[in-house]
Amino acid sequence: MLDSQSTCRNFCFYLLPAFSLQAFSSAVEALRLANEVLGRDVY
User: Fold this and answer.
1) How many Cα atoms within 13 Å fall on the side-chain side of residue 28?
2) Farthest-apart Cα atoms in the chain, separation
3) Are 8 and 42 in contact (CB under 8 A)?
4) Distance between CA 18 and CA 5 in Å, rounded?
5) Which of 12, 19, 22, 43 has a beta carbon 3.0–4.6 Å from 31's, enabling a disulfide?
6) Does pTM surpass 0.90?
7) CA-CA distances (angstroms) from residue 35 to 2, 15, 19, 27, 43?
8) What's the rounded Cα separation, in Å, for the pair 16 and 24?
9) Distance from C-alpha of 31 to C-alpha of 28, rounded to nearest angstrom
10) Whole-number Å distance between alpha carbons of 34 and 42
């Protein structure tokens, strides 16, 4: 679990031509919701 002193983590998504936009959206949404629940930018 991340402590309150942790810095923001960055993710890089490498999308292939046939990659599903729905799968990408779901991954980004999970990170966005985590930030909202924590009340700060962690991801």
Assistant:
1) 10
2) 39
3) yes
4) 39
5) 43
6) no
7) 12, 23, 25, 13, 7
8) 11
9) 5
10) 8
Three-state DSSP state, 36: helix
CB 42 within 8 A of CB 6: yes
SS3 43: coil
Assess contact for 42 and 35: CB atoms under 8 A: yes
Each residue's pLDDT tens digit in the chain (43 positions)?
555 566 888 889 999 999 899 999 999 999 999 999 999 999 8
Q: List, in order, residues 6 or more apart from 35 with CB less than 8 Å away.
A: 41, 42, 43
Q: Which two tokens stand for residue 42?
A: 């962690």
Residue with tokens 């700060």: 40
